[in-house]
Fold this sequence. Notes:
single chain; alpha/beta; 3 domains; two-stranded antiparallel sheet; 15 strands
Amino acid sequence: MVSAWAPQIPDGDGPLYERLVAALRADVASGALAAGARLPPQRDLAYRLGIGLGTVTRAYVEAERAGLVSAHVGRGSFVNAPADHRAPVRDGPINLAQNIAPTGPAASRLAEALARLRRRPDLLEHLAYAPAAGHEAQRRAGARWLARFGGYDGATWSRLVCCNGAQQGLALAMSVSARAGDTVLCEASTYNGVKALAAHMSLRLKGLALDDEGVRPDALEAAAKATGARVLSLIPTLQNPTGRIMSLARREAIVAIARRLDLTIIEDDIYGAYAPDAPPPLALLAPERTFHVSGVSKTLGPGLRAGFLVAPSQAAFERVLDAVRAVTFAPSGFGGLVATQWIEDGAADQIVAEVRAEATARLSLAREILGAAIEAPRSDCAPHVWLPMSELEAERLSGRALRGGAEVTPPDAPIVEPGLVTGVRVCLGAAPDLQTLRRGLETVAGALSSEVGERSRAVI
């Protein structure tokens, strides 16, 4: 049946056909246009809206390129199901182990972004080696991203280095701040990528005790004095794995200690987009000593490998460039160019808004199913939840969940200092849809019930 679709075309400076595609996307996302609905014939829609037939034809072509609709000769154009935009579902247990953003919002815009790239005057420049810091357009876009989604207003693009993902940004910051054998301070349980970097670079990690706001100042000061460490690696916003957020007062206390003891700070702000109300980053509070690392992997898509590193000084920036030239010579051009296109044309704002909305729905489901077992999330769109428990209980829960068909983050993956901060991280974004996520969370809830039952029997 032909839809009586009569969209409200948004105002704006963009071409009319692009705004018509935006209206189509919005109506698909809201459910006003159901999957399988047949769009009106182009001539009919043009008459209905009082616009040119060529404009409607161009919009339908762009919508097909973006994957929003499928056109069939002699039959018309039909709205694709949301599943058409999903990444392939992997075999095996439900993935609650990886922090991956829902892919639909970015996937539905990818073809459109690639079409726009063809019209960029700097497109062919990206076939050549980029400068060691990356192309200027991408560096400027990176600074806009940090300001828009990380609260890093005034990030200096001239000291920003484009990286092949935030992980490379962390590696570059570590490589110019510490030498083999040095001690690096970090959270007692932290991002496993930091542990991997430390092992690869022969660094010693010293885990610091946490409270509800993250690293405790007294623990930081004591460990720095005891070890002589000069580098502090932190995730102050939606800390991985606990999801805790440092208050402004806590950030200021950490910065005061770092200044007094002359510590270099490496700030991982990869989850900043999921906490729009978080306090300002450490890089704003202590710009003279903070390497700030972020990227688009947790929102726009990890396959873009677009990360950003802002160095605290020109001298540090030059050392980072030396490291880039030694290891990769230059950052990759095209993944970052897609991210740049989205940041420049506003699609990034739309994608992040949709990812946040989906994350909010997924977190609500986790609260419903796991209840008091999860530590209170610090953001309504947090991408993972934390179930505090002993390391032994965590191992048992992980095993039961896996046997039931759901994989959570391995409990030992984040642990740096055993016995201080232990539990199970459950990631909410990788499941392909809410129905699959529900099944996975119910499996974890069942494993929790079994754990409680065993402890009760042990008491008797």
